[in-house]
Design goal:
The complex is a heterodimer of chains A (367) and B (277). By secondary structure, chain A is α+β, with helices and mostly antiparallel strands. Chain A contains twelve helices and 16 strands. Chain A is globular, with a radius of gyration of 24 Å. The chains are: A alpha+beta (367), B alpha/beta (277).
Chain lengths: 367, 277
């Protein structure tokens, strides 16, 4: 818990000289969060106001599930039955096939997308996932400029969960709670949303539609979402390391189809390839695109001369599991698995990360 | 808003192409812009991304001396980008991004004897190191260079090796896996030659680059000679796309070869959380 302290300058005027005094103003615990209430009936009107300023992405039901789609003019947002999107919001920050570089006969430049956007309905687990992506793309030395451009221009209106989905295990990963990262955080409370302001940009959104918002206090703790699936994370990296050459990975590999659905659906999988695409009508022109790529695929680690470093499915699966449950915590201080359960939902072979981890614990967890 | 160019290649012109061996060419590149040349300050063993617009990019380590106004790469024609490079002529353009990663620790190993083991097209980064060390000859002790290829025709850099030998206290041993009548040198794997070296292990470091299997056995032999795992520096190859530790292709466990390597000590490799070789 942090004590927020603000430095304020107080100008004291005299007839001839002006002195400035600095006063420490204690803002209270957990910084100075500001809270509002928004009637559910006003959600659409609020989003319409936001949409007058920028693109707004909302969960839209399409086929069996929801996905983030751009809200079209006059479109009514309907989130009844919304638990989470089939595919995570990473596609808004790193769209598959985004143009990075454009070149002509004599010119070449990088292309950035600075469209202002807001995403409504990001669940806490996915907000945590975005913070993982931030570390990967913006931290550790170099900055991925194209991710940064989109991230800097995108506001996040997160939405607390009231009920867990079939495959959720966010409570295990401690991603069911959200304290940072969002610009606004909505929590359903009867006929209203309780709204927490998380940033200046979030505050601006409230100000732009001020008449819909009523001042409010901090909300009391929300009920637990009640995940059915569980991962025991106690000293998990250490336990996983003992299983590094375990037969467990070979057993999973027997079932794995190596289709990469898990990695495509994972909100923290960020691997990509760069693809040169010449203009067929004029080969002097073209673009370089970033395509999402997946470590589950055989070709992912293939180098010239047809050497493949992760030849076996077991090695590729192990990389995925360890990236999610070991490496993130060790290098970023934050697990890369956020417990959204999408890899379980999307797996055609019904491979369940929580079950596999339970097997590892069973075999290697004992002292 | 400040934008972060990430993938913008610097323009270079091909000023010289040397046929080194069947399927291996060396390209000498000069930066078109002076500021790019100044920015591209590399250490032997570091890598860069070389692009042909419309074809793609490939990562190579420079084989030239880092103090030259130009950079050179030796390329074997094995992939999309390299085969397109083989169609280039003098005056053509190649894009360059970099340098990236961690090279050989040539400052840290000053005063030491150095065993260098090069295998096939793994020679280029070590050639750059040889250029540097022979130019600063007094900074280093004895140097052994063991260089192995499959067949006699595959041998490259013969003139450069003569020049390095002239720097003094440099012993060069070449070996081919498959001998022929015209070859009176060593026949066999590099490891057989490394085995025979008479070195003072506590004063000696090892540098190596080559195919994964070779690196595995070379590191065994270097250890058998008594060189500490901390003093064995190996340049690793992996698939690379971005070069800046983002795209994930070059991961060995949680490490990024492009960013944390490509040169790792054997000690570091042993701590890797994935099979290395």
């Amino acid at each position: 818990m942090a004590l927020g302290i603000k430095l304020e300058n107080v100008t004291v005027g005299h007839a001839t000289n002006i002195t400035t005094k600095y006063t420490l103003v204690i803002l209270g615990f957990m910084s100075a969060s500001i809270y509002y209430k928004l009637g559910k009936k006003d959600l659409q009107r609020f989003l319409d106001v936001v949409a007058s300023k920028m693109e707004v992405f909302v969960p839209v039901k399409s086929g069996e599930g929801f996905n983030f789609l751009k809200m079209e003019k006059g479109q009514e947002v309907d989130i009844s039955g919304y638990v989470n999107t089939e595919f995570p919001a990473k596609g808004i920050f790193m769209p598959d096939g985004e143009t990075l570089v454009s070149y002509g006969n004599k010119s070449i430049c990088e292309v950035f997308d600075d469209t202002r956007r807001a995403i409504f309905g990001i669940r806490p687990c996915d907000m945590h996932a975005i913070m993982v992506l931030d570390k990967a793309m913006l931290g550790h030395g170099d900055v991925e400029g194209h991710y940064k451009e989109r991230r800097d221009n995108t506001l996040i209106i997160a939405l607390e969960c009231s009920k867990a989905g079939e495959n959720c295990f966010c409570e295990s990963m401690e991603t069911d709670e959200l304290r940072e990262g969002f610009d606004l955080l909505f929590t359903e409370n009867g006929k209203e949303y309780h709204v927490e302001v998380g940033s200046d940009k979030g505050m601006e959104l409230v100000k732009a539609a001020r008449s819909f918002f009523k001042k409010s206090g901090k909300m009391s703790a929300t009920a637990e979402v009640g995940c059915k699936k569980v991962i025991d994370t106690l000293e998990l990296p250490a336990v996983m390391k003992k299983a590094a050459s375990s037969k467990i990975w070979k057993d999973v590999a027997e079932r794995c189809l190596s289709c990469a659905s898990c990695t495509a659906a994972c909100p923290t999988c960020f691997c990509f390839s760069l693809k040169h695409e010449p203009d067929i009508s004029d080969l002097r022109k073209g673009v370089v695109k970033r395509e999402m790529d997946y470590c589950m695929l055989l070709r992912f680690s293939r180098v010239a001369g047809n050497v493949v470093f992760r030849q076996h499915r077991a090695e590729r699966l192990k990389q995925f599991f360890y990236h999610k449950l070991v490496y993130g915590l060790e290098n970023d201080g934050k697990q890369h698995c956020v417990g959204c359960g999408r890899c379980i939902t999307e797996c055609m072979a019904k491979i369940d990360i929580t079950e596999e981890v339970a097997k590892v614990r069973e075999k290697y967890g004992k002292k | 808003m400040e934008r972060n160019d990430t993938y913008m290649p610097m323009e270079t012109k091909v000023v010289k192409i040397t046929d080194e061996a069947p399927g291996i060419k060396t390209f000498r590149l000069e930066f078109v812009r002076e500021r790019d040349r100044k920015k591209f300050d590399f250490l032997p063993g570091q890598l860069a991304q070389f692009s042909l617009m419309g074809v793609g990019e490939a990562a190579f380590s420079m084989c030239s001396s880092p103090d030259k106004k130009y950079i050179e790469i030796s390329v074997r024609n094995v992939g999309n980008v390299t085969s397109a490079m083989f169609g280039l002529v003098k005056g053509d353009t190649i894009g360059v991004r970099g340098p990236y990663g961690r090279g050989f620790p040539l400052s840290e190993i000053k005063g030491k004897n150095v065993v260098i083991v090069a295998g096939g097209i793994g020679f280029p980064p070590l050639a750059s190191a040889m250029e540097y060390m022979t130019k600063n000859r007094e900074d280093y002790g004895r140097i052994w260079l063991v260089y192995g290829v499959k067949e006699v025709d595959d041998l490259i850099y013969s003139k450069r090796m003569e020049k390095w030998a002239d720097a003094g206290r440099v012993e060069i041993i070449q070996t081919v896996e498959k001998g022929c009548t015209a070859w009176d040198g060593c026949v066999g794997m590099v490891t057989q030659q490394v085995k025979k070296l008479k070195i003072k292990p506590e004063q000696t470091v090892g540098l190596s680059c080559g195919p994964p299997v070779m690196l595995k056995f070379v590191s065994h032999e270097m250890q058998a000679l008594g060189i500490d795992a901390d003093d064995i520096h190996l340049s690793m190859e992996r698939m690379m796309q971005c070069g800046i530790g983002k795209c994930g292709h070059c991961n060995i466990g949680d490490k990024y070869v492009c960013r944390d390597g490509p040169v790792f000590t054997l000690y570091e490799l042993r701590l890797m959380q994935e099979d290395v070789w």
